Inverse folding.
């Protein structure tokens, strides 16, 4: 009897938030006709809630993602999605196991879907929960990639426009508007029109196109780098100070690496003088990206990591060595539930001064 | 020619093996001394502040050996014979060591997913200018020595088990509990309080049953770390004996322990065995530890 009710029970899904990409993840479930309670935006309340029940020594993303799903569970969700094994050898592999344990200990009766980040496993999990046909899943995936691509595109456009805009704050406003419009989109057939409109609104931002400005790159752990609510909207803060922000790390980059392993081989070849092995997560990528940006003549590197992140902490001495060798300004920020925005602001301000000096001395 | 071996972290994974291996090959070796205050302070100064305490201690040992020897041996341990991974922080140790010391680093990648252990040793021997045969002989002898030590450990364990009185299992990494400075002589302290300590490493895995169960135990996920699997199996074994309490020690910022602690704790709690979790770092005071141990022992009676 219990088994019957369990099968009959309609799955109501909630999942962890991941920056602006959350919109794209939500569409997959929407397209397959599943009921979703989207995760609430990350703020100090959700972080505190997650940190309260999470293991103390665990890394920061576990605490935030746990905090993300809790409001959804209170609203009646009974299924949680969590990907495992994004980063090879690091602790992310056990997020699902730990979160399931913690949630069960706190009295939530849930169906925890813990899947590996391989196309086959993702397909199998989705198929099991939704019962959709192969074509439906392919269609949903296609829509997901379209949206994801657009989100990443407008993020990059915003990074370019923000320091050059004439009317201050225009870019951030358009970015927020576009994302919320994209979030409201229901049908795939309306997507091309919306895409056109969004891109048009970006091209209408008045900018000083030829303005020469310093460029700063953000490297580090993928979750902290990609999620503006976790890194205190670092990109727009730097943009407002007149600095162009670059980052290579996003979901497409990660997926490409997953599908085409030779990217890893190139990375390993490039970083051989510094590190001759993988260290799990995106440790190698941070070194590779930093070397790349130094070569391109950037004016600063910001390294973001959750406090105690195993791969990033391991490679940080190497990044510092590159910084000393090349003289490029370098700032490493560890984020956790106790970091306050004011502290980050002060350090960013000081860093911006260093970057400007470095830029001016090059001229 | 002298080869220096830092007596920390990876050394404790195979304590006797490397010493006798290099000795049999005809090299002199210098072991860094037991951890002391100066070594820890030196390590803390150079290491990344967020790195784990054990790694900081390792860098201290490395700095002590600097310029005292011709080579410092820092192997890159990746996977063991069971094809399970070591801690990811071990992967980068040779590279990080190279940045810290002037003495050349002797290293080889031990990745048994790709290459058997013996073959890697041959490569290492070639670096030192030794023939294949010599390396093989040295290896066999070192293995024998290791085997003997294992046998001794086993006997010690059964002797301890047979004794009456309080018996406490100490769950931790070998580099924590074999290092007297790092674990603040917890064995001695417990002895004074009248309790016998059983290191989790001493516990023999149940030899009669299938050593590698095919069906995954529901209590814990399938760990890809060698110590994860080892600990859980050994805890299962030790629970079969009469254990009074359990203590887990982990070094501050040990990422792997953050995962394992959850499942170790669950296991002991399910079996109604009192469990104490201790964190150690460079600032841990002996008085604080003493108080907690006393309180813990009191709860056992």
């Amino acid at each position: 009897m219990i088994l019957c009710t369990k099968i009959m029970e309609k799955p109501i899904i909630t999942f962890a938030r991941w920056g602006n990409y959350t919109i794209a993840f939500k569409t997959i479930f929407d397209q397959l006709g599943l009921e979703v309670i989207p995760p609430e935006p990350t703020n100090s309340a959700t972080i505190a809630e997650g940190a309260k029940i999470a293991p103390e020594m665990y890394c920061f993303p576990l605490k935030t993602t746990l905090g993300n799903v809790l409001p959804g569970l209170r609203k009646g969700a009974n299924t949680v999605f969590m990907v495992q094994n994004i980063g090879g050898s690091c602790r992310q592999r056990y997020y699902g196991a730990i979160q399931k344990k913690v949630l069960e200990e706190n009295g939530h009766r849930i169906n925890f879907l813990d899947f590996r980040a391989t196309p086959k496993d993702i397909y199998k999990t989705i198929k099991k929960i939704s019962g959709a046909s192969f074509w439906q899943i392919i269609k949903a995936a296609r829509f997901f990639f379209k949206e994801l691509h657009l989100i990443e595109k407008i993020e990059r456009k915003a990074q370019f426009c923000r320091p050059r805009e004439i009317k201050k704050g225009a870019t951030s406003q358009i970015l927020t508007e576009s994302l919320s419009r994209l979030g409201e989109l229901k049908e795939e057939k309306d997507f091309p029109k919306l895409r056109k409109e969004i891109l048009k609104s970006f091209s209408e931002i008045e900018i000083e196109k030829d303005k020469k400005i310093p460029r700063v790159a953000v490297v580090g752990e993928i979750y902290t780098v990609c999620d503006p609510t976790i890194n205190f909207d670092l990109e727009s803060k730097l943009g407002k100070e007149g600095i162009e922000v670059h980052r290579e790390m996003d979901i497409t980059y990660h997926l490409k690496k997953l599908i085409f392993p030779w990217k890893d081989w190139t990375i390993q070849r490039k970083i051989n003088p510094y590190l001759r092995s993988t260290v799990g997560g995106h440790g190698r990528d941070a070194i590779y990206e930093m070397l790349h940006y130094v070569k391109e003549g950037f004016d600063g590197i910001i390294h973001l990591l959750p406090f105690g992140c195993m791969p990033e902490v391991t490679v940080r001495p190497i990044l510092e060595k590159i910084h000393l060798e090349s003289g490029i300004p370098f700032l490493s920020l560890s984020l956790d539930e106790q970091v306050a925005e004011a502290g980050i602001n002060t350090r960013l301000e000081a860093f911006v001064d260093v970057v400007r000096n470095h830029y001016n001395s090059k001229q | 020619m002298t080869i220096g071996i830092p007596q920390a972290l990876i050394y404790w994974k195979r304590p006797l093996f490397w010493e006798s291996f290099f000795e049999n090959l005809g090299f002199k070796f210098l072991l860094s001394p037991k951890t002391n205050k100066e070594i820890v302070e030196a390590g803390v100064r150079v290491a990344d502040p967020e790195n784990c305490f054990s790694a900081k201690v390792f860098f201290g040992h490395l700095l002590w050996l600097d310029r005292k020897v011709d080579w410092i041996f820092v192997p890159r341990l990746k996977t063991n014979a069971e094809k399970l991974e070591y801690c990811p922080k071990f992967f980068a140790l040779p590279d990080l060591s190279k940045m810290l010391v002037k003495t050349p680093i002797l290293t080889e990648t031990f990745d048994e997913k790709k290459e058997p252990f013996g073959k890697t040793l041959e490569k290492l021997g070639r670096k030192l200018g030794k023939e294949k045969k010599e390396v093989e002989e040295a290896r066999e002898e070192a293995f024998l020595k290791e085997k003997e030590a294992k046998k001794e450990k086993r006997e010690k364990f059964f002797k301890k088990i047979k004794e009456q009185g309080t018996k406490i299992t100490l769950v931790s990494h070998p580099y924590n509990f074999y290092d007297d400075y790092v674990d603040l002589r917890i064995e001695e302290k417990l002895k004074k309080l009248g309790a016998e300590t059983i290191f989790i490493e001493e516990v023999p895995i149940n030899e009669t049953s299938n050593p590698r169960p095919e069906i995954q135990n529901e209590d814990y996920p399938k760990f890809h770390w060698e110590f994860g699997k080892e600990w859980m199996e050994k805890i299962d074994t030790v629970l079969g004996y009469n254990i009074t309490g359990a203590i887990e020690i982990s070094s501050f910022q040990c990422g792997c322990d953050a995962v394992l602690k959850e499942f170790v704790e669950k296991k002991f709690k399910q079996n109604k065995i009192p469990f104490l979790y201790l964190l150690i770092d460079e600032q841990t005071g002996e008085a604080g530890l003493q108080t907690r141990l006393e309180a813990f022992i009191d709860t056992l009676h």
In short: Chain B has two domains: 2-144, 163-300.
